[in-house]
Amino acid sequence: MILVAGGAGYIGSHTCVELIKHGYEILVLDNFSNSSAKVFDRLKKITDQDIPYVDVDICDEAGLESVFSTYDIQAVIHFAGLKAVGESMLNPLVYFENNIAGTSTLLKVMKRHTVKHMIFSSSATVYGEINPSPYQESMQTGMPTNTYGYTKLVVEQMLQKLDQAEEGWSIALLRYFNPIGAHPSGLIGEHPKGIPNNLLPYVTQVAVGLREKLSIFGGDYDTADGTAVRDYLHVVDLAVAHVLALKNRLDHTGCDIWNVGTGNGYSVLDIKNTFEQVNQLQVPFEIVARREGDLASFYADSSKIQNELGWEVQYQLDDMLAHSWNWQKNNPNGYESA
Ligand code: NAD
Ligand code: WQD
Predict the structure, then answer these.
(1) CATH number of the domain to which 113 belongs
(2) Strands 266-267 and 229-230, how do they pair?
(3) Which pLDDT does position 336 carry in this prediction?
(4) Is 148 helix (H, G, I), strand (E, B) or coil?
(5) Closest ligand 2 atom, CA of 148?
(6) Which positions fall inside the NAD-dependent epimerase/dehydratase domain (predicted)?
(7) Which helix (H) or strand (E) holds 246?
């Protein structure tokens, strides 16, 4: 059985669908700090399965011990983390405890039960400011511009040191670029609590009338249209990358790194304009000052994951933006509107 820690969240729930599609037996572990157990009703509609889950925190060693003693766990896909950049700058200790100490506790219990396969949700933020795009896995990591990103870098380094020190670990560090979109069914998607930090949820909330207008952070970057460029990828393609990484790791030992990005860069204005065109609606906007810590442009070199894991992008930008809107318009209040 595969333990999906943080499996009730945005990327985790989409990954549950793909794992089931590929025949894996799964157990979700989540403390629901940023998700709702209502997601399991939606997952049942998509997969026709009742996915078992436990309400446990990765910082709770006794809780983890009971899970690993009860279930026959073969590998862990580890999504369980806090991810709000602004909050991480205000409350670093909360991020150290949840993301770093929580992962350490999870690893300790895994080791005790001889479970040594882990797929970890890392981020392109670990490349920092020093590297030019396209980012390659062989580049030296830099210093992330925020505390959230710093926790990802620390956990990557913890996992690398663990692998160097002890035999038998099998770890994948997946460095995500900018996941957006939702399941094509419109049944699961992303619904951030409070004011969205990320671009796409903000755009869809303006489009659905929950927010007045989009603020575009910075129009004077050294990019084609002056707005910042990112590598957006469909969350279902990202979910598939986890299945491929899991298959690979079940047959290998060691710690390996894969970028998960398409290799294409789109600007904020590209996103707004394409969203309007694909969905036939208007998104009022204004260009405001740059957001602190933002880089002008970054995108992946995705050749390693393509060559080594056979990952292929199934969805293009139009699909990502159509699916984001399909989810938002049918679920203006996320799972609460069910
Ligand atoms: P999410 O918040 O939707 O999902 C994370 C899940 O983990 C939530 O269900 C949350 O309740 C759970 N969780 C958090 N702390 C926990 C704890 N201590 N114990 C148990 N469960 C806990 O976020 P997401 O967008 O699905 O991201 C999943 C992972 O991918 C995170 O680790 C995130 O940092 C990483 N990541 C996300 C992005 C992105 O843009 N969304 C980019 C790079 C990396
Ligand atoms: C994308 C672009 C903004 C909101 C962050 C984390 C990273 C990863 C993904 C996850 C930027 C602009 C945004 C808005 C805007 N994390 N923007 N108006 O900053 O590339 O990456 O999320 O867990 O680690 O740092 O993503 O979606 O916040 O921003 O103009 O209201 O959209 O300035 O250029 P980012 P984002």
Answers:
(1) 3.40.50.720
(2) antiparallel
(3) 86
(4) helix
(5) 24
(6) 2-261
(7) helix 235-250
pTM of the model: 0.98
Judging by DSSP bridges, how do beta strands 117-123 and 170-176 pair with one another? Answer: parallel
Q: Which two tokens stand for residue 32?
A: 């629901």
Number of domains in the chain: 1
Show the low-confidence residues of the chain (pLDDT under 50): 338
- Whether 227 is covered by a domain: the verdict is no
CA distance 232 to 61: 36
191 found inside a domain = no
Domain interval for residue 63? 2-182+234-262+300-314
179 ligand 1 Cβ < 6 A? yes
CA atoms in the 13 A half-sphere facing the CB of 156: 25
Q: Has 148 been annotated as catalytic?
A: yes
Residue 83 covered by a domain = yes
> Is the minimum distance from the CB of 182 to ligand 1 under 6 angstroms?
no
Query: Which of these is catalytic: 10, 127, 135, 148?
Result: 148
Residue 5 pairs with which residues in a beta bridge? 29, 78
